[in-house]
Design goal:
The structure holds two protein chains of two kinds. By secondary structure, chain A is an alpha/beta fold. Chain A has eleven helices and 13 strands. Chain A has a six-stranded mixed beta sheet, with helices on both faces. A four-stranded antiparallel beta sheet of chain A has the order 11-12-10-13, with helices on one face. Chain A has a three-stranded antiparallel beta sheet with strand order 2-1-4, covered by helices on one side. In chain A, α3 packs across α4. Chain A starts with a strand and ends with a helix. By secondary structure, chain B is mainly alpha-helical. The chains are: A alpha/beta, B mainly alpha. At the A-B interface, α2, β5, α3, α4 and α6 of A face α1, α5 and α6 of B.
């Protein structure tokens, strides 16, 4: 599969401050998450991708083209910036119509597209006649996302799109993004809400101090982390008995018991060997399982391991 | 099976051209300006003045027609003037290059320079709608992610300022010329008055371009909506205050006023000194009256400080460009 975005020895500095420090990576089509703490270089990277900033050195291409000063390419991209970025005195449809025209969409289609995207991001119609200055943060977030979708881009770049949304809103936007991805839109999404990215994105890019610490699918990154081990939280009727059986089978690195809560937390030596034997070990122990959760597969865990 | 939205498709139709997209930026800016009631009223005022100017030209034209309503009225008002009026009419008819060409050149110099401040004032009011508001709302980030470059964005905003000045300054002046000569008693007025139109266009277009570019620079200075109009008006007023003081102390300081510099371009374009000399040498009675003009005024008309004005305006434009370069960018 050819990469949508390719960076080679890309750097961007602001005076003496490094925004991005000699990074090289490739981003495949689909949903990709960009993870990193504040100041990691996420916004700088997204701004270079969307042609807002010029790299100080190195090269970045999107669909094989350089984004800087390239309207033909920008027409294929949608960008939703992190902060507020909309004129307060305008109504959303007026603004979206102008932006559609700015993207080169003919006048006859511009207004209809504005309505379609507002419906897509589920901004209630009763708010369409209000000026955007009167909007809540969540509503503004939806309009911002709508303008990114307006010209039906092939790559959608979203900087913290879930900020200010309530849980229901987050779920709706996540669903919209999944739908878009299923229609062939590549989506690059930066967020500090790791749980959301985890559910949305197969691939991630971990940034810190302007460097790429890891990139690829969550599975690949886990495999590359040296001291990574599978951690499971098992809820069962007899945690002691299960722990003893697993320990005897020599598949554990360690465990932690909470008998009162019926909880057993284990760290597995070799995940492949463990899962091969898991069913039989469980049957031998005669324990009834109420629930199993992986603690190590979370993006949070990967992020912590990578940035440690 | 999850329900998928089947309406999503990449846009495959024909995209509008880059000029259409630049026009969207200009159009939005103009629409925002027109929402300001004071600007709307000033636009109406400018066109009323244009109609007044056309009426003046109509009256001047009537002076060249024997037995016209105007000459009859003058004679009726004061019968003693009959001989003088008839003599003047005859003379004016014999010298159309002076009676029409020189007269309209002088009239349009004054009309252009007196209407220019209205344009400058309107630009001040429109300052937030140029770049300031986009900086304040950060919408510039969104615009620059669309299929336009920063240059396209600035060109669109420039067209907004240019458009405003066109409807408040250049347009009314040109319209007055066309309407005034259309109402004249003879079609040859268009020919004899062509120099005035040429000067109006040179001065008006140059002035409009310069003022639009300066206004963009000032509007990019700050993201506060009150700060940029204040800066523009302060610069304009201070320039006007410094100008007479500097005349007798440090004359180069006058060039800090962009309106003074533009007037120097106007004087150089319209060449009023030549008109004064022509009138003085050729027009009976009036020529002798013009001999009483102060030497200082005569010197100012004959020797406008064009080089200094152009240098000052060039420096101002460079400063404006630097401000825009520094401020109009996403980071």
């Amino acid at each position: 599969m050819s990469a949508v975005i390719r960076a080679e020895e890309l750097s961007r500095w602001y005076g003496i401050v490094m925004g991005l420090n000699n990074v090289s990576f490739e981003i495949e089509p689909g949903l990709t998450g960009v993870v990193g703490p504040n100041g990691a270089g996420k916004s700088t990277l997204l701004q270079i991708i969307t042609g807002q900033l010029q790299p100080s050195s190195g090269e970045l291409t999107v669909f094989g083209l350089r984004p800087w000063n390239n309207p033909a390419l920008l027409r294929r991209l949608g960008y939703c910036p992190e902060g507020e970025a909309m004129p307060k005195e305008l109504r959303p449809l007026d603004w979206l119509r102008s932006l559609a025209l700015l993207s080169g969409i003919p006048d006859g289609d511009a207004a209809a597209r504005g309505e379609a995207v507002l419906d897509r991001v589920k901004l209630p119609r009763e708010h369409w006649d209000k000026r955007m200055g009167q909007y809540s943060k969540g509503m503004k977030q939806r309009v911002k996302l709508a303008q990114g979708l307006l010209h039906e881009p092939e790559l959608l770049v979203l900087d913290e799109p879930m900020n200010g949304l309530d849980p229901m809103g987050r779920q709706e936007i996540a669903q919209t993004l999944k739908e878009l991805a299923s229609r062939g839109v590549s989506i690059l999404i930066s967020s500090h809400i790791l749980a959301e990215l985890e559910a949305l994105c197969k691939n991630i890019l971990v940034l810190n101090w302007g460097r790429i610490l890891a990139s690829g699918s969550q599975k690949e990154i886990r495999a590359d982390i040296k001291d990574w081990s599978e951690e499971l939280e098992i809820e069962c009727d007899s945690p002691e008995r299960l722990a003893r059986r697993l320990f005897d089978a020599d598949v554990l690195l360690g465990f932690d018991l909470e008998p009162a809560a019926g909880l057993l937390r284990i760290r597995v030596k070799d995940a492949a060997v463990f899962y091969e034997q898991w069913t039989s070990l469980l049957l031998q122990s005669g324990t009834t399982i109420h629930g199993i959760r992986s603690r190590s597969r979370s993006l949070q865990n990967i992020y912590e391991k990578v940035t440690m | 099976m999850p329900l998928h939205d089947v309406h999503y498709q990449h846009w495959t139709g024909t995209h509008r051209g880059i000029w259409a997209r630049r026009w969207v930026i200009a159009q939005n800016g103009l629409a925002a300006c027109v929402q300001n009631k004071t600007i709307r009223n000033l636009v109406v005022l400018c066109w009323m003045l244009a109609l007044t100017m056309a009426a003046v030209l109509f009256l001047v034209g009537q002076l060249l027609v024997t037995d016209s309503v105007v000459t009859q009225s003058v004679e009726k008002f004061n019968p003693q003037l009959q001989t003088f009026v008839r003599m003047l009419t005859q003379w004016l008819e014999d010298h159309p290059e002076i009676s029409v060409g020189t007269t309209q050149n002088v009239l349009f110099y004054f009309f252009s320079t007196y209407l220019m401040p209205v344009g400058i004032f309107v630009l001040g009011l429109a300052m937030p709608s140029l770049i300031t508001r986009d900086l304040a709302s950060n919408a510039i980030l969104i615009y620059s992610s669309k299929a336009v470059t920063r240059g396209d964005y600035l060109l669109g905003k420039f067209c907004t300022a240019f458009g405003l000045l066109t409807v408040t300054w250049l347009g009314p002046v040109c319209a007055a010329w066309f309407l005034g000569n259309f109402l004249a008693p003879d079609w040859r007025f268009f020919w004899h008055a062509r120099a005035a139109l040429e000067h109006v266009l040179i001065f008006g277009v140059a002035g409009t371009i310069i003022l639009s570019a300066l206004a963009l620079g000032v509007s990019a200075m700050s993201s506060r909506e009150k700060a940029t109009p204040a800066a523009w008006f302060m610069w304009w007023i201070l320039g006007g205050v410094i100008q007479p003081i500097a005349l007798h102390t440090k004359p180069w300081l006058r060039h800090l006023s962009f309106s003074y510099d533009l007037r120097q371009i106007g004087l150089s374009t319209f060449r009023l000194g030549d008109d004064l000399k022509t009138a003085q040498d050729n027009v009976p009675i009036l020529g002798q009256m013009l001999g009483g003009i102060k030497a200082e005024t005569r010197d100012a008309l004959n020797h406008p400080t064009l080089a200094g004005a152009l240098a000052a305006l060039a420096l101002m434009l460079v400063a404006g460009a630097l401000i825009i370069r520094q401020r109009v960018k996403p980071e």
